[in-house]
Amino acid sequence: MKTLLGMLCTLVIALPVSAQETGNVILKYGLNFLKTPYVAHTLEVNDEEKLVVNFDEVDCTTFVEYVLALALSPVKNETIDKADYARSLQNIRYRNGKIDGYTSRLHYIADWVNNGVRHGFIDDVAAANSPDTLKLSLNFMSTHPKAYKHLEASPENISKIENIEKALSGQVTHYIPKNKLPDNGFSWIKNGDIIAITTNIPGLDVVHLGIAYYEKGILKLLHASSTQKMVVITQRPLAQMLKNNKRFTGIRVLRMKEDKQ
Q: How far apart are CA 10 and CA 155, in angstroms?
């Protein structure tokens, strides 16, 4: 695994030209992860819940979390202090920034977004721009405990997850249905916005995360791809990616607060 401090120095100093041109701090860091291998379950390496930082292997969620944490961390003398970075990442990944077992991690993206909005580092952009809504009905984790290492052998964790699911269910979120998203996106979707892909899989709200990336006026997705096994930019428009997958229903659009950049 790359040393955290060494990787942070590289990310701050060695910026690709395309990122400099966008002037967007999220893309500035996100593009540095291109070709990073996709590996699932990298946060499940410890029996006890601990903050994991692994820039060598990412999934769609950890990729976005690492990039957002970099963007939220102060740059001092052209680098980021690893303690500042760890603090930012913990605030993103855990409810109220506190690690208290497996269920303190924000597993559902609805919970993840609520935490970011509540603590003032994320804006729900779709809420202000799209009239279309979804009503949450979450139970996937508690009804599929064998899919999760720390649920399968822990009735206590399953019970805690059920309570979290009940608290989130019934909430209404704004999104863009996939049949309403044009190839060129919308003027209010900006480079570097966080894109959360919604799903019709029962009991889930979101199945994929990525970062908005415009190329020649076409809205694409910078993301950790499970099919291509690395961080890539989609060749096709994001709108086409959504239409080609029956499980995708649309997108939520989120943004790091401007005063945090």
A: 43
CB 148 within 8 A of CB 141: yes
pLDDT digits (tens, 9 = 90+) for 116-141: 999 999 999 999 999 999 999 999 99
In the numeric block, which tokens belong to residue 220?
């694409």
pLDDT tens per residue across span 1-11 = 344 544 554 45
Q: What is the mean pLDDT of the chain?
A: 91
- Share above pLDDT 70 across residues of the chain, in percent, rounded to a whole number: 90
Residue among 142, 157, 150 nearest 203 (CA): 142
Q: Which residues pair with 192 in a beta bridge?
A: none
Strand residue runs (E) in the chain: 75-76, 79-80, 122-124, 133-135, 172-174, 176-177, 194-199, 206-215, 218-225, 230-233, 248-256
What are 26's strand-pairing partners? none
